[in-house]
Structure formats: C-alpha cells, structure tokens
Write a structure and sequence with these properties.
With 247 residues, the protein is of the alpha/beta class. The protein is built from 7 helices and 7 strands. α1 links the parallel β1 and β2.
Length: 247
C-alpha cells in the first residue's frame, strides 16, 4: 500500500486531495500548520501532522514522523492579489517563503529517501497564472512560475534515479480560500490610482465563465502521481485546460 504526504490540507485543494487518495486505498499523511483531525475521514490509513513549510525545524520533524513515503504533494500556498506597486516587499517575501522556498525545502527533504529507493513522485501544485499572464497577480505569478522552471529542471535531474516530478496547474477557483489565505487585504493593495483599472477585472472574477473545482485539482494530482508517460504538466479545471491548449 502506497503512502502520500500532502501539504496544506486544512482546506481547499489539499483537503480534497487527501480525501481522494484515501478513497483510492492509499495511506495519507495530511499536514497543516494547525492540525485538525475532524475534517478528514476516520481511518487508520489517515494521519495528521503539524507542518509549517517555512520552518526548517517543522519540516525536519514532520519528515521524521512521516517515515517512508511514495509521493509528496506540495500543495501549501498563499495568495496575493493587488497592484504590485502597492504590495509591501515584506509580504512578497512571505508569499515566496511558502509558494517557492517552502516547496523547494520540502522537496529537498524527501529527495534522499526517494533517490535511494529509486522510486517515487513529487507533485508540485502551481496555478494557471503560469499558463497566461494575468493582471493584479504579479508577485503571486512570480512565486508560482519559479516552481514551473524548478520542476522542469528537477524532472531531468531526478529522472536519472527513476524519481518523477510533476506539475499540477489549477485554474480559477472562487470557492477556495485563496484570497483569504493572506495577511494583507485585497482592498489595501488597490490604491485609488488603480481603482478604474481594477474594477472590470474584479467584476470578471466575480462572474467567471469557467471555473476549477477542488475535485478537478484532486483528480489532476491523482493522475500526475500515477503517470508514467513522462508528461510534466497537468492543467486542472476547464479554464486551465483551455489556457493550456491556447498556449
């Protein structure tokens, strides 16, 4: 029976992905900054561990407690929407700490066991902002695009040891907590000088024609974790699939 470790399982994509892998008969190690057992299936195949991907000590403890794993899903992330000019560099660094350096740190922590066994998969969850440029998301896009390049290079590097690296690219999901998972309010990042520009963009956000569901992402992660064709990128959701085809 295989084991998957998923970061950022307190809600959204991570939670749904944990439920999906459990339903498929896997052992699931669901991690989150503040552990909650009640939101996951009651099963001996589900473990919940505390994990802050921005803390080296927390990563080391979680990896030790988890034991051997077959798949790592780097899902934990934070969002930032707003004018880049108005976004404090301190917050941009926090976004990169989780979305970029947190992914790299978790990946580096699990590589030794996967490499030594010459098996395993690392799935990095990014965003459809890496498929097409979108306004008011410059810092977030940068943090996720870095992982696109990182994953492509790492796929070659670890392929020599039969370890696979995959990218899952979710589209726009208005039902997730993306906009809330940040210390800075959106309205604070839209100064008056950007109000006229931002208004129609937020109107479009409020009435999307195509959206991505949590189940869409869980399905894409499942396919990525089990793919043996060499495919790197897995767009998730109708809007992301459309962007990927257009690109």
């Amino acid at each position: 029976m295989k084991t998957v470790l998923i970061t950022g399982c307190s809600s959204g994509y991570g939670l749904e992905t944990a439920r999906r892998f459990h339903a498929e008969g896997w052992n699931v190690i669901a991690t989150m900054r503040t552990p909650r057992r009640d939101i996951l299936p009651k099963s001996e195949r589900v473990r919940v561990l505390a994990l802050d991907v921005t803390s080296p000590e927390s990563i080391a403890t979680a990896i030790e407690e988890a034991g051997p794993i077959d798949v790592l899903v780097n899902n934990a992330g934070v969002g930032v929407v707003g004018a880049f000019e108005a976004t404090p560099m301190s917050h941009i660094r926090k976004v990169f700490d989780t979305n970029t350096f947190g992914v790299m740190a978790m990946t580096q922590a699990v590589i030794p066991q996967l490499r030594s066994r010459r098996s395993g998969v690392i799935v990095n969850v990014t965003s459809s902002v890496t498929l097409a440029a979108m306004p008011l998301a410059a810092a977030y896009t940068a943090s996720k695009t870095a992982i696109t390049g990182f994953s492509g290079s790492l796929a070659h590097e670890l392929g020599a040891f039969d370890v696979r690296v995959k990218l899952v690219e979710p589209g726009y999901a208005p039902t997730t907590r993306f906009a809330h998972n940040t210390a800075v309010r959106v309205e604070d990042l839209i100064p008056e000088t950007y109000a006229e520009f931002a208004a129609p963009i937020f109107e479009q956000f409020a009435k999307p024609t195509l959206v991505t569901t949590e189940a869409d992402v869980a399905e894409a992660v499942w396919r990525a974790a089990n793919d043996t064709t060499g495919q790197l990128r897995f767009p998730a959701g109708a809007d992301a699939v459309a962007l990927a085809k257009a690109g």
